[in-house]
Amino acid sequence: MLARVDHMDQAIGRLSQEVARRLAPFSPLLALLRTIPGVSTRVAEVILAEIGTDMGRFPTASHLASWAGLCPGNNESAGKHFSGQTRKGSKWLRMALVEAAKAASRSKGTYLAAQYARLKGRRGHKRATIAVAHSILVIAYYVLERGEPYSDLGADYFADRQSSEAYRNRLVRQLERLGHKVILEPADAA
């Protein structure tokens, strides 16, 4: 059994060297993709192999997400919304992006981690992971199209977008639901 394991390790090593040799001309693009949180070298190789280097074939990032089968589904009938499943797409690309999304969701202080945490509470782990995978694919589209590295929006992006008054009112309502009486007084500006 150990001999079989050693044989498989050697085969994996040979294949990894062959992949590295064939992707050597695309090393600048791989470096750009690796600037996205959660995207490792192997995931960047899969993204490049599956979608290619020319983003001109996809008019928009939404077309790429639809082609990959990672666009949000919409199932509505008679005004009722039902569970919308994603379409079938490239299973290799989907697996790589889900792996990257799970890694990005555990990163600290990034937009993708904040997006995952925000969606997980309302929609659950699996849907939040697919949403982050969709975001990574859209980011990869723009990184490859523009040839610029990814610049993160930050973990506080969602908090900065909402007004402080609405946020304060929501927190007061939550405390009142827990049975507390809340009286707000402005802090002295010292």
Structure explained in plain terms:
The chain is mainly alpha-helical. The chain contains nine helices and two strands. A two-stranded antiparallel sheet has the order 1-2. Strand 1 and strand 2 form a beta hairpin. Helix 6 runs antiparallel to helix 7. The protein is elongated.
Summary?
This protein is mainly alpha-helical and 190 residues long. The protein has nine helices and two strands, in the order H-H-H-H-E-E-H-H-H-H-H.
Topology:
Layout: H1 2-22, H2 27-33, H3 41-51, H4 61-68, E1 75-77, E2 80-82, H5 91-105, H6 111-123, H7 125-146, H8 157-161, H9 164-177
Antiparallel strand pairs: 1-2
Oligomerization status of the protein chains = single chain
If you compute it from the alpha carbons, what radius of gyration comes out, rounded to the nearest whole angstrom? 22 Å
Mean pLDDT: 88
SSE order, one letter for each helix or strand: HHHHEEHHHHH
Major beta sheet, specifics?
Answer: 2 strands, antiparallel
Inertia-based shape: elongated
Q: Classify the secondary structure makeup into a structural class.
A: mainly alpha
What's the arrangement of strands in the largest beta sheet? 1-2
The low-pLDDT segments are none
Strand percentage, roughly? under 5%
Number of helices: 9
